[in-house]
## 1
Amino acid sequence: MKKNLLVALCTLSALPLGACADGYGYGGVSAGIPYAYNGYYDDFYGPVYDGYWGDDGGFYYRSTAHDRRYRRGDSAHFSHGARPDGHFHEMRGSMTPERGMRTPHFSRGGTPGEHHRH
């Protein structure tokens, strides 16, 4: 009886780990695979080290390689396309999700190495 209880407890204790990939973490994608992004930015938040287009349509960025979480930028400052006012410049790059990074709304359907459009 005690052996069965121990096995059941061990099995149940592993279940919460599966929830780590939902919303935060690295969104259920493989860590270490680069994901390309492109778009336009007006420098409102200062330098952008890297980022990604979230599945909610927002652009998530970090300012340095040492940031462990991505922050959501306002759509007034990040755009998929060029804006007619001329204050935006093109940005291209890629981000590579790492274990333990906070990546809210990271797209599960993106194709590694390709530019995303949402």
## 2
Amino acid sequence: MSKQFQFKLVLLGESAVGKSSLVLRFVKDQFDDYRESTIGAAFLTQTVTLEDQTTVKFEIWDTAGQERYKSLAPMYYRNANCAVVVYDVTQSPSLDKAKTWIRELQRQADPNIVIALCGNKTDLSARRQVTQEEAQKYADEEGLMWGETSAKTGEGVSEIFTAIAKKLPLTAPPPRTATRGAAGATGGRGVDLNKQSATGQNEPCNC
């Protein structure tokens, strides 16, 4: 039987960098030019199957980027196994904001959290303000994963989530029932969805 794991993933970044579009492309392979701003946070799920047939299920919390929702963010990144911090390659200030989020994660999130810095909107290359060299240098200095994407064309989207799945600790945790907190997902190490309960049924995954 192939192994199955479940992880909580949170998206952070300034408003309008394309977080929701990135998730929509990853989950439904769709793009909408006129998406409204996220209010609070949105919840979606998607699975990634690795080469060895291990299945990684992401519980994805797509947070709002507006400043008035910033105080809610710890609810969503608390106990997250991984985070994608998104900036817009055509807007230099969005990288500065991403760095602020990364510092906050480094201070307050789980110390083992996997963080990926993601430069979105590569389809707008003529308007690029953030070079690949600048972003990758910062990511290397901070020990982060890094990649660029275009939610509009789909370029790089599945690759960055697959890379995160490969980076996560795919080992079975001690048997326990996943708990649903304020942001509805599990923390710590991945939940092994193949673990059987005493009745022979899969443990609830709190999807």
